[in-house]
Fold each of these.
Amino acid sequence: MKEICIDGQKIGNGASTYVIAEISANHNQDIQEAIDLVYLAKECGADAVKIQTYTPDTMTIDCSNEHFRIGEGTIWEGKNLYELYGEAYTPWEWTGRLLEEAKKAGITLFSSPFDITAVDCLEQHNMPAYKIASFELVDHPLIARIARTGKPVIMSTGMGSLREICEAVEVLEKNGCKEYALLKCTSSYPAPVDEANLARMKHMEEAFGVAVGLSDHTMGSTVPAIAVGLGAAIVEKHFTKSRDIEGPDSAFSMEPNEFSEMVKAVRIAEQAVGTVSYELTEKEKNSTVFRRSIFVVEDVAAGDLLTEENTRIIRPGYGLAPRYYDQVLGRKVNADVKRGTPLEWGILA
């Protein structure tokens, strides 16, 4: 598997799971709220915090006809796209300040740009990496521009067919991207657990030979922990101070205590996965004494034969291994042996 490195931290090939806190619109356009979320993300165990870089005008046009009104099936039903993005966007002039605060907090900050001008802006701040959102998977000119920065890229694949993912990966590689990872994502908000389809991660890992992970919109920690068990090298979750604070994304975001618990669950999951090994652990070595072995279970005198009556395979494991049982039956002993003696080769005549 190709690994990537963001801000000095390796991702993939057995490295610790890279946990991203997505601030999205949860700052409610208050820079202090955004700064607080950066520090909170660090306290909660995140490796990185992510923002989004767009404006209403870089996303869409100010138009009120039916094409620009959000239909049924989302938490934004009935809203006008331009108005929604006006509520949700992160002011571009915050970028430098947020990077400074992230550095002070000891956490990596990077962004999802949603058009080429956003990439140009972010490049002025020397972003350490870029995230391509699921909805931009089909925006090849944007993907090409991001690839040409030479920075590591994390690309979400929500709604993407295998062909669309292949095409996006081809654009990345043709434009010089050497380090990228792919995230499984279900692009509904919140996402039902039965639509998580985590099995696709392993297929993407095998198909593309890169680190894979999960951009998760389900509620709770269960799905991220399972994803790590299935090989996720990255976990991304939306992050808010409180879901009681109204905002475009708060309803499906994690609060700090929940995020901390998720990070703990992720770390436990990655410990449980471990590595392929058939060596005994130290704890297992202590348990081997409770295996079965061959014992003399009746007093026998020198010269007596060992039989099924005077020997048995029982616990504990101090005698010969059970695989030798047929070989010792019918053999004579060379000395008197008391009941409860573990059978050893030296006892046999």
Amino acid sequence: MGKSVKMQSLEFKNEGFLSNSHLGLHWNLQDCNFYPAGGLFASVSQMGNNENGGFKLPCADLLVKYVSLPEGFKILGMTEEEKGLVNKKKSGLRLKIKISNPSLRRLISGGIAGAVSRTAVAPLETIRTHLMVGSSGHSSTEVFHNIMKTEGWKGLFRGNFVNVIRVAPSKAIELFVYDTVNKNLSPKLGEQSRLPVPPSLVAGACAGVSSTLVTYPLELVKTRLTIQRDVYNGLLDAFVKILQEGGVGELYRGLTPSLIGVIPYAAANYCAYDTLRKVYRKIFKQERIGNIETLLIGSAAGAISSTATFPLEVARKHMQVGAVSGRQVYNNVLHALASILEQEGIQGLYKGLGPSCLKLVPAAGISFMCYEACKRILVEKEEDA
């Protein structure tokens, strides 16, 4: 039978001392020194006294190496090297990379955020695309089983390489434009905003339009690769065949509904994110927001924006697929929305909303979290490292 060890708790005294009568130990909170009070430490001469009547702990180097010290704890007679070890242990490992150009820091942070977030939710993106066009089933479970049966796990990540190639620069441009525009439009301290709407709303819309114009052809190719998996042999083959079939204009099929959809989505997403961050700071009175809090705030912003603009996303996917497998070709976004509403009802405009939110909500949270974390890693000066 092993022996049990009972730890005695410390008690606060009105004089600013921590005390334990069983051990005979007093800790003065004002000068952070230990004072013996008889009992266990009655013979303090063995440990060494200081001028205040406290004592020096033996084997300070071992204490620094193996014991986590409480905040404000001070060891008497500690060398400067030992103090450095304590500070290093408290601060932990911090990775810092010096990049003096602020624009480059934003672009790199945005690219990493986009690649990480989209890869994490690639299977949900595949299921969502199949649900929207009804190519492999009418429910998330049915689509998942069909993909696993015919292609296995690789089928869930089909088109992800193209997705990362598209999303990384897209998110880099998007977050760069948002940060830049929002910073320039936001009023300085003590000034009133001259815009009738929040600056983050305008910045978000500009960010969404900029990234869409640059990277839209890659999005269309990725959609075609996902749906027409037996037609194309890869990214380059898809580009060549699409150009041969319809010219450059075919690469931008569905661009109008994309732009119409991305403006309210990006505006709502960034505005909600900025607003929720301000609310968090106001409630908790903290200027710095941690990674977990950023993840939750970004996820909430993604849920709000994706739900509000989902019908436009459905219309865009239908227009991108075009006349594949004898499908109807739509003239414009209004024609697509009206046709889907007439044929499938209101539920047709929200087909795939569940997996869409399952994909977009965590993707938005992960993206914002990675972006803010990367901005803290990439610093301007060596002194910030």
